[in-house]
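Design job #97: recover the sequence.
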């Protein structure tokens, strides 16, 4: 079974309509949708917005469902230097906590510089950066590139998770330079952190809803970003069995 996590219902509307058959249960005081997508057994739940909601939801689901993999998806803002446009897609190579650390007179110290690991497991330590599963990333990139509109760009690189979204061009540029990220969201690193703790493969795809610039909602398109991300998830699930097939 594959676990699908998004923050809010807008980001799952298409997939929930396509779940067949669909069973809805209460789990962790939220609706949990169980069914099939692309021939695969899936469980889908909305985490709510932000790191705390995402971490709590993911922990409960990993404990109770023991999924074979976790797919996180939804919307993101793109840093202008990424070259991404509204409606494009980003596949995360890793999730980076952009504001876990300490602000100091000389700039910013991340968790590694503070010597405080967020996860320790199997002799490994993770600080601000949590990689996605390389096998799932390669499979997802191939399947999504094959299925997507040729006008859409499918970028691959780090995504940044923040508690305070960058509402200025200068703030976004600073985070992009410090992290190397292509864009930002509010949940991904928390989901990735729990997957690292539980040893569950993690994959993430996000549609671009806006550029990270001086905030101008008239230039945003959340619906287009959510649709693009869901279409990408649909493509990955449809080709999921290629993961088990010999090369």
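Job complete. Output follows.
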């Amino acid at each position: 079974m594959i676990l699908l996590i998004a923050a809010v219902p807008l980001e799952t509307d298409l997939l929930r309509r396509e779940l067949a058959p669909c069973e809805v249960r209460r789990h962790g005081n939220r609706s949990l949708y169980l069914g099939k997508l692309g021939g695969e057994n899936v469980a889908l739940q909305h985490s709510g917005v932000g790191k705390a909601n995402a971490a709590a939801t993911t922990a409960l689901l990993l404990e109770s469902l023991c999924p074979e993999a976790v797919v996180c998806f939804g919307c993101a803002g793109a840093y202008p230097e990424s070259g991404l446009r509204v409606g494009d897609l980003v596949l995360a190579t890793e999730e980076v906590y952009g504001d876990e650390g300490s602000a100091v007179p000389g700039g910013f110290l991340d968790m590694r510089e503070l010597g405080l690991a967020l996860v320790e497991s199997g002799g490994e330590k993770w600080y601000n950066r949590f990689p996605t599963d390389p096998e799932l990333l390669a499979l997802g990139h191939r399947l999504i590139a094959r299925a997507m509109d040729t006008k859409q760009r499918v970028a691959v690189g780090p995504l940044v998770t923040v508690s305070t979204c960058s509402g200025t061009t200068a703030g976004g540029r600073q985070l992009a330079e410090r992290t190397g990220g292509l864009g930002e969201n509010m949940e991904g690193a928390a989901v990735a952190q729990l997957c690292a703790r539980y040893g569950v493969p993690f994959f993430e795809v996000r549609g671009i809803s806006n550029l990270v610039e001086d905030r101008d909602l008239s230039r945003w398109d959340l619906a287009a970003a959510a649709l693009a991300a869901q279409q990408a998830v649909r493509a990955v699930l449809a080709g999921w069995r290629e993961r088990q097939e010999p090369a």
